[in-house]
Amino acid sequence: MERLQRIETWLSGLWPGTSFTLAPASADASFRRYFRASRAGGDSLIVMDAPPSHEDVGPWLKVQQLFHEAGVHVPDVLATNLDQGFLLLSDLGNTTYLAALTPERVAAIPGDYLDAIDALIKIQAASRPGCLPDYDRALLQRELDLFPDWYIGRHLNLTLDDSQRQALSKVFEQILAVNLAEPRVFVHRDYHSRNLMLMEGAANPGIIDFQDAVHGPISYDLVSLLKDAYVDWDEEVALDWLVRYWERAKKAGLPVRPDFAEFHRDYEWMGVQRHLKVLGIFARLCHRDGKDGYLKDMPLVAKYLRRAVERYDELNPLRKLLDQLEGKVTVLGQTMDKKTLGVRSGD
């Protein structure tokens, strides 16, 4: 309530004599919150509330500038109060790509995703080293460690024995070697259906939640988009979009692998890293932060993981570990079956 009163005071100073209303717009997995400010007779705007004790708006502002210069549609910054952690932004609406996946829009969805691919290529084409943090070995390793620490240890309440830990460590090294050998570009890091906005009468997509962007593997954002934790695309559909990205990226001069099979392998192994990370993050959001809404999305992520590890013999140690975890998952108090865990390939 105190933060809301501070926002109202700040906006009253920006808009003297103007009446306005504030309503929750959205929240994310961090401490940031968003409010929609509607002025009498004017367009609505968005207030980002990022408490300085928990959130630094500096990275968001830096990435906003980089992505804006790349020519993609991100919120405009209209006013700032850095001391209090407030930003006033243009409103990209409330229709995410996820919300727009309706039967009435089936014919338009492929065009939406090609728009998202084109926007991603613009971001990648604007890449240069030294602007964003490196998606380096240490960061990729910390993300992988979320899987044994939070998903296995906390969520499944299991303890790995020495041989299991050694096997997992070895396969992590193999995954990292493939990830780190990829060409490097700007990486949004959460380029998926909840962070892409469907715009009416403007360039699609509107892009949000980019403050964690880094300079890293070129296939990463394709994994976020096409192996989305919230949308279960048919594999043939996702593969078609991946091919279209690869063709367009080559024409744009991006450093994608010249052989699609090699690019696809990079994409699959990058996916394994992300799936392991996301399972750990979803577990942490539940057990540390009290946000259990993400648990329902775990089975899809686990399915992606299972599909990938079954395609590559080098990942057999990870497949065997998943087999050993079979039947151990508890989500919202219910023991889930093998298919829900994602340890069988017949789905």
UniProtKB/TrEMBL annotation:
A Pfam family this chain is assigned to: APH
Domain Aminoglycoside phosphotransferase: 22-249
Domain of life: Bacteria
UniProt EC number: 2.7.1.221
An example Gene Ontology molecular-function term: kinase activity
Keyword Nucleotide-binding: yes
Top class in the EC scheme: transferase
Keyword Ribosomal protein carried by entry: no
Keywords: ATP-binding, Kinase, Nucleotide-binding, Transferase
Protein name: N-acetylmuramate/N-acetylglucosamine kinase
Source organism: Denitratisoma oestradiolicum
Name of the gene this protein is made from: amgK
